[in-house]
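Weekly sync, protein design subgroup
Attendees: M.S., D.O., the rotation student, P.L. (late)

Item 1: inverse folding check
M.S. brought a backbone from last month's batch and wanted to see whether the design step gives back something sensible before we order anything. D.O. pointed out we never logged the input encoding, so this time it goes straight into the notes. Structure tokens as presented (274 positions):
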């Protein structure tokens, strides 16, 4: 009997414990849910209180304050002081550029420009001078070609003292007279010595000889020069030498002509051409 009662008691305790555990678990769950709900309500109430305390932001107010702040910052910073020197520097730079361009245009137009504390700048038109020089050069070359054509047409004709015509023949100065009398704007002299002292003819060095230049020699000792020829290029000249000889081309490098050579003159220039 005692064993039966003990077993029955243990069974009863087990059943009671089993029935009690879900109840305790349910009670714990309800407690936790109640706690969470209460905390959530408290948080909501706090947030409401906070929202009610802080006023809503004013957009216009902040924008105005920001502009006011920037204005105050701009006023406080020395921005105007920094811009003033830059404007002055810009004015100086523009003035320099204007003056430089003015000088350039004045130089191109051939005018004189006087800068303070500096020399006066004067120049002619480079383009006009270049065009003018080219035109003069073309005129001189054309005249040289004409003179050479006339001279070469007399090769082989006999020497004739005092002759100035292709029909009768030429002496040395008569040949030069025939070649240039219609090309230059001054009177060509009749003798070699007068040609040598001609003021309208420019003196030139032997190393500067060009076609058409006059070359002079002193052969018989009569005056400074008593014989003349015309340089044709490549170290040679055309001449009417003496009686019994024909008009011919001779080399300046021959010993005889080197010994008697006295100088050269240029009669055809841009100023002397017709």
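Designed sequence read out in the meeting:
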């Amino acid at each position: 009997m005692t064993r039966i009662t003990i077993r029955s008691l243990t069974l009863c305790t087990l059943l009671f414990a089993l029935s009690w555990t879900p109840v305790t678990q349910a009670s714990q769950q309800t407690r936790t849910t109640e706690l969470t709900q209460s905390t959530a309500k408290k948080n909501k109430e706090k947030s409401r209180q906070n929202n009610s305390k802080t006023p809503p932001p004013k957009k216009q107010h902040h924008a105005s304050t920001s502009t006011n702040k920037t204005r105050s910052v701009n006023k406080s910073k020395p921005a105007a002081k920094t811009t003033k020197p830059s404007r002055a520097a810009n004015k100086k730079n523009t003035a320099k550029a204007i003056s430089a361009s003015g000088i350039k245009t004045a130089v191109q137009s051939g005018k004189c420009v006087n800068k303070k504390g500096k020399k006066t700048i004067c120049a002619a038109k480079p383009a006009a001078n270049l065009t003018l020089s080219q035109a003069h050069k073309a005129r001189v070359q054309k005249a040289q070609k004409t003179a050479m054509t006339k001279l070469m047409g007399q090769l082989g004709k006999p020497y004739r003292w005092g002759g100035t015509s292709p029909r009768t023949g030429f002496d040395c100065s008569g040949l030069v007279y025939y070649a240039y009398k219609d090309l230059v704007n001054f009177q060509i002299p009749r003798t070699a010595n007068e040609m040598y002292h001609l003021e309208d003819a420019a003196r030139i060095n032997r190393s500067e000889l060009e076609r058409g230049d006059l070359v002079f020699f002193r052969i018989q000792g009569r005056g400074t020069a008593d014989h003349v020829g015309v340089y044709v290029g490549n170290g040679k000249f055309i001449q009417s030498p003496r009686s019994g000889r024909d008009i011919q081309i001779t080399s300046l490098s021959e010993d005889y002509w080197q010994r008697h050579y006295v100088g050269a003159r240029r009669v055809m220039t841009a100023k002397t051409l017709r």
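Discussion: The chain is about 55% helix and 15% strand. Confidence is low (pLDDT under 50) at residues 60-70, 72-77, 103-111, 123-128.
Action: P.L. to compare against the previous round before Friday.
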